[in-house]
Amino acid sequence: MNSRLETRGGRWGAALLPLFAALVLAGCATAPAELPTFNLPAQFKEQAADTQGSWTRAQPAEAQPRGDWWRSFNDPVLDQLIERADARNTSVQAAAARLAEARALARSTDADLAPQIGLGAGAARSAGLDRNQSPRPSTLARAGFDFSYELDLFGKLSGASDAARLDADSRAGLLQSTRLLVQAEVAQTYLALRAVDAERVLVRDTVEAYRDTLRLTQSRERAGDVAELDVARVETEVASNESDAMTLDRRRAELEHALAVLVGDLASDFDVGAGEWSTALPTIPPGVPATVLSRRPDISAAQKSVLAAQARVGVAQAAWFPDITLTGAGGYASNDVGDLLKWSARSWGIGALLALPVFDGGRREAGVQGASALLDGALANYRTQVLVAFKEVEDQLSSLRILAQQSGVQAKAVASAERATLLSNSRYRNGMISQLDLLDARRSELQNRRQALQVKASQYQATVGLIRALGGSWDAQAVSLAPTDAQQAQVAAR
């Protein structure tokens, strides 16, 4: 008797050994790494703060409203263009479709946590399929429902559900990032177009001035006051400036066509009429804290991707645990279709299934390693996004600072060139200088005026670039960069 009990005990121990090993491995499983935090300076370097200030941390907050930041430029045409781009831009539509796909996948993954119930009916006629069945043909009809429910004792299903939800959240952040990128591109393209319009006016006015000079010079050449060389010089200036005007016409057409694509229109049907460049240039308030980077949706998307990768590491580790499924079936079964729905034909069954692979050739271990590698990649991408965000803001701040200085210097150059042209014209009419000196003075004035326009255009471009780098606005509230307690609890549970 004792030997039989010992034999049975040994058999039970051998049978339970895989389950015990799985539980031991679960206990030794390494928890996923926590989301890294960054010490963010209270001010950007380019703000040239008098003091270094305190250090703080901030969390991406994609739920905060971005606001209609482009309205600060006070340009109705720009407002209309961005509204059209929000509704019709194909990149935004594609990003929205990817978000809808991710949310549908998350709902599909959530369905694995719920009981699965199905209805079915069927009939089969057979004979002699096994030794216990009569060789005479018989019919078996069945109608009823099936039930199955997998117990999520080890968090594998809930972990997959959390990962899918975080993927959807990441897609939501990417949609915000795409929308912000399109808005910024529309604003920058439109402002570049208006800058070209202003430059075209300047060049065409210059062409008309040179044409007036050419007519005067030709009249003086016919009177014998000047040589043919003077006429040739003015004709060269007229042709050169006409060529510049045509180059600006081509540039404007390209910008208008690019704007048509951004707002989702055909270039052949799109037109932005020439207008005066009266767009306001907003000033980003000084003392912007670095925590405003929390508004950048691409950082938020990268953070959610890290959390999703962490959840998938937990799912891969949970693959070492057994799968336990409860099953059930109920309905009617009869050898006569006419008796199928009689109470006497009722049938039912319940069961429980436990599955635990003993040897899988290293499949589960490879799954854990693959999930860990994906987590490492997500962490690296997250850190890259933060570093790039700081670079972009610092780039635009430095550009605005230097452009402001350059604008002041260039304004002085324009004033001096205008004064030089006025004096040269007076001296030329009095015969004190040659026509070549006058043309040089006018050429210098045109060059400085065009350069002043280009500096102004660069200021607008850098302002839009800074707003985009700040995540669409500059009044974000500071919060913690670490993940929320609920997110950390979900990751730890894996």
TrEMBL record:
It comes from the Bacteria. Keywords: Coiled coil, Lipoprotein, Membrane, Palmitate, Signal, Transmembrane, Transmembrane beta strand. Residues 1-33 form the signal peptide. Its main location: membrane. It is a lipid-anchor. InterPro entries: MdtP/NodT-like, OMP_efflux. It is found in: Cell membrane. Residues 49-68 are annotated as: Disordered. Transmembrane segments: none annotated. The keyword Signal applies. Residues 436-463 form a coiled coil. Pfam families: OEP. Belongs to the outer membrane factor (OMF) (TC 1.B.17) family. This is Efflux transporter outer membrane subunit.
